[in-house]
Amino acid sequence: MQTLGLRVLLTMASICVDPRFAAENGGEIERMKYVLVTGGVVSGLGKGVTASSIGVVLKSCGLRVTSIKIDPYLNTDAGTMSPFEHGEVFVLDDGGEVDLDLGNYERFLDVTLTKDNNITTGKIYQSVLEKERRGDYLGKTVQVVPHITDAIKDWIASVSLIPVDGKEGPPDICVIELGGTVGDIESMPFIEALRQLSFSVGQENFCLIHVSLIPVLGVVGEQKTKPTQHSVRELRALGLTPHLLACRSAQPLLETTKAKLSQFCHVQAANILNIHDVPNIWHIPLLLRNQNAHLSILKQLNLLSIATQPALDSWTRMAETFDNITNSVKISMVGKYVGLTDSYLSVAKALLHACIACSLKPQVEWIAASDLEDESKKSTPEAHAVAWKTLKNAECILVPGGFGDRGVSGMILAAKYARENNVPYLGICLGMQIAVIEYARSVLGRERANSTEFDAQTPDPAVIFMPEGSRTHMGSTMRLGSRRTLLQTRDCLTSKLYGNTDYVDERHRHRYEVNPEVVQALEEAGLKLIGKDETGKRVEVMELPSHPFYVGVQFHPEFKSRPRRPSPPFLGFIMAAAGRLETHLSFGQNGSASMSL
Predict the structure, then answer these.
(1) Which residues are known catalytic residues?
(2) Which of 69-83, 264-278, 474-488 has the lowest mean pLDDT?
(3) In angstroms, rounded to a whole number, what is the distance separating the alpha carbons of residues 314 and 330?
(4) Taking residues 108-128, what's their average pLDDT?
(5) What is the pTM of this model?
(6) Three-state DSSP class for residue 325
(7) Counting Cβ atoms within 10 Å, is residue 452 exposed (0-12), middle (13-18) or buried (19+)?
């Protein structure tokens, strides 16, 4: 879609932005339309999916949309945060380690974001302190207001102008999600900055959507509006007034509930949206469209005369297709962080995309790798028995990425089982390294083969610390972002899955890699390391030609998977599990092809 020329020019005096962007527009910038999504009552309401769905609906109206996620934590980025605490770390093309909600934005909106689209308290304070140390503030006392709040506004204004859809020129609308819950002390500077932003850009360029919870007490059975009333009151006390309410509930809101919310929250009844539980999250943009959310937003932003009717036919077919699928495929996911499914969110989404392309529903069975180990047979025999029964009943086995030595022995056993029993296996990052270690031990007879990550003194290192890595700093010191992998031949499964190509560009996040010194021995024993980086030394892809599907990749293909463009390795993996891989390849299909929905 072409840009619609929605914005009027605004001089530099009106709002402070990065001069780089101003220079590109002849000393002036174009005015952006902002949609801010906040949350109240409790966390985990699905603000990220709500913000993404709003973006989908606005994009379907012919507008170009970008997104910004604000995380009020002090970490500079999500790179050093535990998956148990914060879910997965999503990796962008530019190497940014960001919040998993940016993955939702990329998948829903089919855009490519940058690390600057994720703002954290750490980033803001770091930038302000660097300016202070350089003397940019000319001796002034540096304070939260105005210096921190100005930095936040400048960051938003600058990043919102970056095109993320591969087209020329800035987007039309920027959807901003403020993480956390209104009233959290750490989000106060952002609330103040956003209040100032709404005032400086004008009401016709700012729309606030507040996501809240409408609980039902089991005893009374009544939809309770009081938590939302208090949340909106808190928001108003901080200087922000919601234009729309997005109410989360298990069942559709009653008209009496809407009327009560409208009366006590001072929001028009037409602007009270209900996001109740749905069969799958792809129904949420349709839910918003059916409640005319786009009309309310477009009216607030003065875009009704320009925007088109939402075109969501293909999105509707995708949501309904999933609902009507009856067959499923059993997938065993053997990992470290299975206690929190968000730890592998992108992997789960990539499996979902691939399964839908195969007209299957993913039946993901999570296995804690440590439960497969021999030690667990003594300490937790019941969990050990269940884990092995689940693994043996699976139609395919996936070992995702991870760090540390916990559960490694269990992963090695899973890889060995898949190899010896011709069960389709996909190893991602650590999963590929595990497969290499297992092959070196079982086939080459190197019983002490290991990774130096798990045993620094191993006499037979099959996996080593990468040469350019840092052992003293954790943040942003891995091999990160989109890198090119050269395939040594087109006569390999990976090349065929990607459409008979000589190379692939995928995102990376790792510190350890296959030892180049063991490559020759592994290949002579039948394991083909057919993907290398541009130096020809770093191993990127592993295949076992004698196996129906035994593939390992050093990169993370899940990060670029899209609902209608499933990741090629994941699609091949599911096709193999369904016994349709040969047919899939013979028809010349490839994983980057769009789904015919």
Answers:
(1) 429, 556, 558
(2) 474-488
(3) 27
(4) 96
(5) 0.89
(6) coil
(7) middle
